[in-house]
Amino acid sequence: MELHWRLLTFIVILQSLLSQGFVLQDDRKCKYGRIEKLLRIRCYDLDLKEVPQNLKTSVEVLDLSYNRIRKLKSSSFQKYTDIKFLMLYENMILSVEPGTFEPLTSLQEIDLSSNGLTTIPLELFQLPRLRNLYIDSNELTSLDLRGLEKPIRAPLEYLNIANCELKELPDFGIMPKLWQLNASKNPLDNFQVDSLANFCHLQVIDLTKTQISQCGCQQVTNHIMMLGANPKFVPVCMEALDVRECPLPYNRTIHSPTFASCQTSVQLAETKNLWLFAAACFGGVCFVLLVVLYCFVRCRRKRVQKRMQKRKPFVISPRNAINRQPEDEPLHCDIART
Ligand SMILES: *[C@@H]1O[C@H](CO)[C@@H](O)[C@H](O)[C@H]1NC(C)=O
Ligand SMILES: *[C@@H]1O[C@H](CO)[C@@H](O)[C@H](O)[C@H]1NC(C)=O
């Protein structure tokens, strides 16, 4: 009996503490911090239903994972244009209004995994800095790429579309910088090896836990070997098929026009950079020359000025010289007066 009473009192006290917010309140707020000099705000697991609008607008790393956000609105990130890393995994996001991600021109990485998305917001592919896209564990069954502008603008290096019920690899067009593609845990029963021609710098591809056909498996393996990529996450093919049954994939992959255009786009970017660099060097040299020339002209003019001043008493009558005294003071930066 005694024990029961004690337990009861304890529970009552604990409850009053909780209701007054002594115990949990501090934990229920977004936390500010820095990570590698970037301003980070962590709002994970706070039962949030919307993107909070009262945060510091200079946030660069925003963690909104483990909340109850259902919808992203075009105004959700309007204020937070400095975000570079955005975590939205483990929410309930079902829809994304057009224009939601458009203001995020600094965005480098977004994690939208484990949500209820049925399609990928296509505007993500046009973000000029986006390198890493995680959209795994969604149900991308109604993925419609007709509105996708190709080639995409985002310099994607990492793409995770694992566990999304995909029947084939979606055709996002060439991705010259992509080095890791994770498509595991998708059925991929319509997989065509042609889709790999879009990635000319692929190093890792994860196709484990898919139902890719025997021939598909063999062709991917052939292609990966020829590319020099890592075959570790390509499923082991169970039987070796004859070339008549399962042709070599190269004229559909590395010897295809798509693959060639992927490679030239990289070369183009490189030459463009080289030209930009050369132009910058030239500009710099010109600037230095101009500065030197300017200094030279100024020094010369000053010297002439000084000589003129020294000569003045001989030229101007003594009276005039006295009257003009204040103007004859040697003024450093004033050339206009003479
Ligand atoms: C691919 O993604 C799945 C699910 O997100 C993950 O379990 C797996 O480790 C990833 N594979 C690689 C190679 O990173
Ligand atoms: C690829 O090569 C095979 C023979 O190896 C040929 O039958 C097929 O038509 C070629 N495909 C294309 C697209 O050129």
UniProtKB/TrEMBL annotation:
UniProt name for this protein: LRRCT domain-containing protein
Taxonomic lineage: Eukaryota, Metazoa, Ecdysozoa, Arthropoda, Hexapoda
Keyword Kinase: no
Keywords: Leucine-rich repeat, Membrane, Repeat, Signal, Transmembrane, Transmembrane helix
Pfam families on file: LRR_8
InterPro entries the record matches: Leu-rich_rpt, Leu-rich_rpt_typical-subtyp, LRR_dom_sf, SLRP
GO cellular component, one term: extracellular space
Signal peptide per UniProt: 1-19
KW Transmembrane helix (keyword) present: yes
